[in-house]
UniProtKB/TrEMBL annotation:
Residues 108-269 form the TLDc domain. One of its GO terms (biological process) is response to oxidative stress. It comes from Absidia glauca. Belongs to the OXR1 family. The keyword Membrane does not apply. The keyword Metal-binding does not apply. One of its GO terms (cellular component) is mitochondrion. InterPro entries: TLDc_dom (IPR006571). It is found in: Mitochondrion. Keywords: Mitochondrion. Its main location: mitochondrion. This is Oxidation resistance protein 1.
Length: 270
C-alpha cells in the first residue's frame, strides 16, 4: 500500500461526488478533480491493489471504467484486473466523460508522449509527471475559469480536444494560456492530431510568429493570411481548424468547423 491515505481520499471524494459542472462552486469542482486525479495516480503505482481502491471509494462511476478498460495495457495487480501480478507502471489516460451518454473516451498519454517526444524541446523529452490543469467536464464551460486554473503552471502544456465526430487533436504550447490581445509563445509550439496511423505533429515553419492568441472571447493557435490553425470560441463549445502559415498544418478536425465535446489542458514536468 502506498503512503497516500486512500481511505481519507475516498471519504473526501464521496463528499464531493455531487459536485458537477454547473453544480457547486469553482473551488468545489477544482477540489473534487484534484482528489480524483490523486486517486487515479495511485492506480499507476505498483503495489496498490485495484480492489482496495474500489472498495475504499465505493466503486465510483468515474473510476470503474479506468480499471475495466484494456487490462493488459494497464497491467494492474489485483482480482479486478484478472489477478495479474505484473508490477509495471500502467499508462496514464486522458479521461473524457460525457454525462449525457454515460460514455468515457480514453486517450493514452503514454502513447501520446512517446509519439510527441521527438517534437518536444530537448529539456522536456524526459517528462514523466502529467497533471490535469483544466477539464471542460470537471470545471465547467468557462474561459475565465480555464485561465484561472492554468495560470500557476510554470511549464509547457498540452491542449487536447475531442469533437462531435470523435476526432482528437490539439496543440503543444511552450507556456500556459493567458488572456491578452497580442500573440505570444515561441517556435517550440506545434499542432497535433490523432490519426488511424498514430499521432501527427505540425511544427513551426518560421514564416511568422503567430503562435498563441488567447483573448477573453476566444483561443487561437497559429495564424496568418486571416486564418487560424486552431480556433475555439469563448464558450468552449465550437471551433474551427484550417491550414495556416505558422504550422503549415492540415485541418485538425474532420470538418473545418467542429463542435467541441471535451477539452482538457495538461501540464507536465520532469
Amino acid at each position: 500500500m502506498t503512503d497516500i491515505n486512500l481511505h481519507a481520499l475516498g471519504e473526501e471524494y464521496q463528499q464531493l461526488r455531487h459536485v458537477t459542472a454547473g453544480k457547486g462552486s469553482d473551488e468545489q469542482q477544482e477540489k473534487k478533480y484534484l482528489v480524483l486525479n490523486t486517486i487515479v495516480e495511485q492506480l499507476g503505482l505498483p503495489g496498490t491493489p485495484a480492489a482496495d481502491i474500489l472498495s475504499t471509494l465505493g466503486k465510483p462511476d468515474e473510476l470503474v471504467p479506468l480499471l475495466q478498460h484494456d487490462a493488459s495495457a494497464m497491467m494492474m495487480p489485483g482480482p479486478v484486473m484478472g489477478g495479474s501480478s505484473t508490477a509495471a507502471r500502467p499508462p496514464y489516460y486522458f479521461v473524457y466523460y460525457n454525462k449525457g451518454k454515460h460514455d468515457y473516451f480514453y486517450f493514452k498519454i503514454d502513447s501520446v508522449k512517446e509519439t510527441l517526444r521527438p517534437f518536444l524541446p530537448q529539456r522536456y523529452r524526459l517528462a514523466t509527471r502529467w497533471s490535469l490543469l483544466y477539464s471542460l467536464d470537471q470545471h465547467g464551460i468557462s474561459l475565465t475559469t480555464l485561465y484561472r486554473l492554468v495560470k500557476n503552471n510554470k511549464g509547457p502544456c498540452l491542449l487536447a480536444i475531442k469533437d462531435a465526430d470523435d476526432q482528437v487533436f490539439g496543440a503543444f504550447l511552450n507556456e500556459s494560456l493567458k488572456p491578452g490581445t497580442h500573440y505570444y509563445g515561441t517556435g517550440e509550439c506545434f499542432l497535433w492530431r490523432n490519426t488511424t496511423n498514430g499521432l501527427k505533429a505540425y511544427a513551426w515553419t518560421g514564416m511568422n510568429e503567430y503562435m498563441i492568441l488567447s483573448e477573453h472571447e476566444f483561443i487561437a493557435i497559429g495564424g496568418g493570411d486571416g486564418k487560424f490553425g486552431l480556433w475555439i470560441n469563448g464558450d468552449l463549445d465550437k471551433g474551427y481548424s484550417t491550414s495556416c502559415p505558422t504550422f503549415n498544418n492540415e485541418p485538425l478536425a474532420g470538418q473545418p468547423e467542429f463542435n467541441c465535446i471535451e477539452l482538457e489542458i495538461w501540464g507536465f514536468r520532469i
